[in-house]
Amino acid sequence: MKEQEVNKEKHENGLPIINIEGYATATPEKLLSLAKEIGHACRDKGFFYITGHGIDASLIKQLTEEAKSFFNLSDAEKMRLDKKHSTANRGYEPIRNQTLEAGAPPDFKEGLYIGIEHGDDHPMVKAGRFNYGQNQWPKNAQYFQKAATQYIHEMTELAKSLMSLLALSLELPKDYFSEFNHDPTTLLRMLHYPPQPKNPLPNEKGCGAHTDFGGLTLLLQDDNGGLQVWDRKNDAWIEAQPIEGSFIVNLGDMISRWTNDKYNSTLHRVINTSGKARYSMPFFYSGNPDHIVSCLPTCLEPNSAPKYPPISVESHMRDMYKKTYSGNNNEK
Ligand SMILES: O=C(O)CCC(=O)C(=O)O
Ligand SMILES: [Fe+2]
Question: Can you name the residues that pair with 317 across neighbouring β-strands?
């Protein structure tokens, strides 16, 4: 695909803004043109905005309000839902629990992890598989639970569509990732970043510099800013300012493995200098736990070897969680 054919709209920070409106019913030509834009963004910064995604604004608003109410609960109530009680990586994560940047102080953020609800009798729960289990909800959470479930469902469908566009961008059939998309591992993470402390520890941040672990991340952020994306061409951090009604999409490490680094998972971090509470909601789409991620046929140059050995989604995700929690989690 020729770079000059791509019709690029960009934010002033240089990140592309891709309007995917009508993608669900788009013609093959329209899909190819969207795929070109996405492919260009993936080879460049690995981060882009999407608009026209079709996720209901009132659902987003409701969930945002639920997140704020949740983080306003007492520490005792939040700690009742401590993620340590879960073997499925669900529940509350207190401030300074995760260290996303090796060598930096733990992240100055708290979170609530929510996934698809699986009962104790589900065979994957019985088998102790990664991320399979029940959520931990605060009291009287029926509306919250309903909204989160609906959001996870809609975001999963959106992520599947983006995987089709990614496949097309890599000159693969549209349904190339259908096995990966089957029964996927997903995680909705609600995050609250208090204002950056007045006297932070050296190198302390809301979220240390890291790449995401899985397939795609679709991030909803409030209007306070603070997310920074590493621009490897210019050796500089770019401020990924919020754009109302958009999601930021970025690629996780599994996509680097698939594409032999043709597409990169990009370093990013959060420093909340707004002086206000910042809320964000990354949705992580990591695919079927049994899927084996190995170098794609269209990404291996002649006479070269894959840089990464094949690995299952589940093994890769477990490895990454172990690295960033160093004993602070009870993930099986
Ligand atoms: O809060 C954000 O804007 C980013 C969060 C993030 O990068 C993550 O949770 O992996
Ligand atoms: Fe991230």
Answer: none
